[in-house]
Specification:
This protein has 19 helices and 12 strands. The chain is α/β, with parallel strands linked by helices and 534 residues long. It has 3 domains: 246 residues, no CATH class; 152 residues, Ankyrin repeat-containing domain (Serine Threonine Protein Phosphatase 5, Tetratricopeptide repeat, Alpha Horseshoe), CATH 1.25.40; 109 residues, Alpha Horseshoe (Serine Threonine Protein Phosphatase 5, Tetratricopeptide repeat), CATH 1.25.40. The strands form 3 sheets. Strands 1-6-3-4-10 form a 5-stranded mixed sheet. Strands 2, 5, 7, 8 and 9 form a 5-stranded mixed sheet that branches. Strand 11 and strand 12 form a beta hairpin. Helix 14 packs parallel to helix 16. The longest helix has 18 residues.
Length: 534
């Protein structure tokens, strides 16, 4: 669940952090955080839960919510606090409502308010597949009222109601992954100041424990089911103890079970396949795959890596940084991608980078080639559509450096490999900066990157988020950068003005590109824009 850029200024009137815990996934990407101390109380969570296939209402889906915040004391020191946890369930129309009194979720000095919402129905999950960023739809209602409790902030309290529109699909995961999803849905804050009605809280935990007991078959799965039963027995405890630290659970999960290929060690939450992949042992990886080990598992905590992304990390960020024995890691990557069961787009959370995006960030042009040949989808996005494979590759090709500013020798080749993909959407608009790959390259005066995009089939008239086509963007930037990198910015105008099919008559903010150049008295641009297209 990623993060949109945070802060109340970037999320108008949607300032509290409203995170969606989607099963196994961490809090949802479409979040907003109010970083400042404000008088806000989230007094209701309401919504509707539907069948994602038919849009029909789903009855008896359990909803669990936790209110947390940061309380600031003297010298600006902040302390994280759990204010409340409560639960409810959907009715025959799929509707639910969890109402909480103001005093339970508000006190002066709170900031970074966070509402974690989890939805459970046996045999159902919110995400149909891990390659989609589309989760639940959310909206916020606000009512400002006079409040004595908010005297330190003008006596006005903003009472907020969170609206949730969630769609569930029949669960597609096997028992192992489903149990791990259920485990994440029962994780609790160690201590909360108050709670809602006992019965719906207990019913939420009991429903999960009951589903877990029905699913568990292997020793590892039964240990998970017993863990969930233990959590259900303590669902109403004010001071929660995490049973994962207790001896009985630690003993069961301390070591990999040689009779269960999908068991996990508590050291790194890794399967045997993940462990051998990270060690660069291709022979053992092939043996385990031959025995039926699932290559599409991910870690449940921390990095959410799979066997594939684990070994990609070990392979190194860039050619210059790869370990001397890098060939053994490449052999593991080849072995994993040669298995027809391996999902080349697998990621631990639906908002996260895909393996292809990671390879592009790491500068692993050889891995990029392998992933594309294995069928990796180059059009998936990450972090609420802020990033795509092409947006990453374009930037790396433009600068020749990775995110840490280190040289990336494979940047140009991996860009070319991606552009050659017949499935690639070359005109996707990023929500990060509102640019298409072409307008992004133009904005930075990266002429050769822009040329390659055009040669690969990018639409020379595709507008950015602000509805400005590339020629307008190029002209505006050339005018604004009259002294800084003047030649490069002028060259972007020259490239576009001469490109076949470019429209010069498009009007943005009342002017064509030529009119903008004339108003700026830029004779060099005027001459370029008046020339005929080649």
């Amino acid at each position: 669940m990623a993060s949109s850029r945070t802060g109340s200024r970037l999320a108008p009137r949607f300032a509290a952090l409203v995170a969606c815990a989607i099963g196994l996934l961490p809090p949802a990407p479409a979040v907003a955080i109010d970083l400042e101390v404000r008088s806000i109380a989230y007094v209701e969570i309401k919504g509707v839960i539907r069948d994602g296939r038919t849009n029909a209402p789903l009855e008896d889906a359990r909803v669990y919510a936790t209110w947390t915040a940061v309380s600031y004391g003297g010298y600006g020191r902040g302390t994280s606090v759990c204010l409340r946890f409560a639960a409810g369930k959907s009715d025959s129309q799929g509707r639910f409502s969890i109402v909480t009194p103001e005093w339970a979720v508000f006190r002066p000095g709170l900031a970074q308010q966070f509402v974690d919402i989890r939805i459970h129905k046996a045999g159902w999950q919110e995400m149909p597949e891990g390659d989609s960023e589309d989760g639940r739809a959310m909206k916020l209602e606000e009512e400002k009222v006079a409040s004595a409790a908010a005297l330190s902030h003008g006596g006005i309290l903003a009472k907020r109601r969170i609206g949730v529109d969630a769609r569930l699909f029949p669960a597609r995961e096997d028992a192992n992954d489903r149990l791990r999803r259920l485990r994440s849905m029962t994780m609790r804050e160690p201590k909360c100041e108050n709670r809602g009605e006992d019965r719906p809280i207990q019913e939420y935990f009991d429903a999960i424990a009951s589903e877990a007991q029905a699913l568990a078959k292997t020793k590892y799965e039964k240990a998970l089911a017993d863990l969930l039963a233990s959590r259900a027995s303590r669902a109403l405890a004010k001071d929660h103890v995490d049973e994962e630290g207790e001896d009985w659970f630690r003993k069961v999960t301390a070591y990999l079970d040689p009779e269960d290929l999908e068991s996990r060690s508590s050291q790194g939450d890794a399967t045997a396949l993940m462990g051998w992949a990270g060690a660069g042992n291709a022979a053992e990886v092939k043996r385990l795959l031959g025995l039926g080990a699932n290559p599409n598992r991910t870690r449940g905590r921390g990095d959410s890596d799979s066997a594939l992304t684990t070994v990609m990390k070990q392979y190194g960020w860039a050619n210059v940084n790869r370990p001397p024995d890098g060939a053994k890691y490449l052999a593991v990557i080849q072995a994993l991608l040669a298995d027809p069961r391996t999902n080349p787009d697998l990621r631990g959370a639906a908002f996260d980078y895909t393996p292809l995006m990671r390879a592009l960030e790491y500068g692993q042009d050889d891995v990029v080639e392998l992933l594309l040949k294995a069928g990796a989808n180059p059009n998936l996005t990450a972090y609420n559509r802020q990033f795509s494979a092409l947006s990453i590759a374009s930037k790396r090709a433009a600068t020749g450096k990775n995110g840490a500013g280190m040289p990336m020798p494979g940047a140009a080749r991996q860009f070319d490999l991606l552009l050659a993909s017949p499935q690639l959407d070359r005109d996707m608009v990023s929500t990060y900066d509102g640019n298409t790959p072409l307008t992004g390259a133009i904005s930075g005066a990266y002429v050769e990157v822009a040329r390659k995009l055009l040669e690969a089939g990018a639409d020379p008239n595709a507008p950015n988020h602000g509805k400005a086509p590339p020629l307008i963007v190029a002209t505006e930037h050339a005018i604004l950068n009259e002294s800084y990198r003047r030649k490069e910015y002028v060259d972007t105008v020259r490239l576009l003005a001469a490109w076949p099919g470019v429209r010069k008559d498009v009007v943005v903010r009342g002017k064509t590109a030529l009119q903008m150049a004339r108003d700026a008295r830029r004779q060099d641009l005027i001459e370029i824009l008046q020339a005929e297209s080649r």
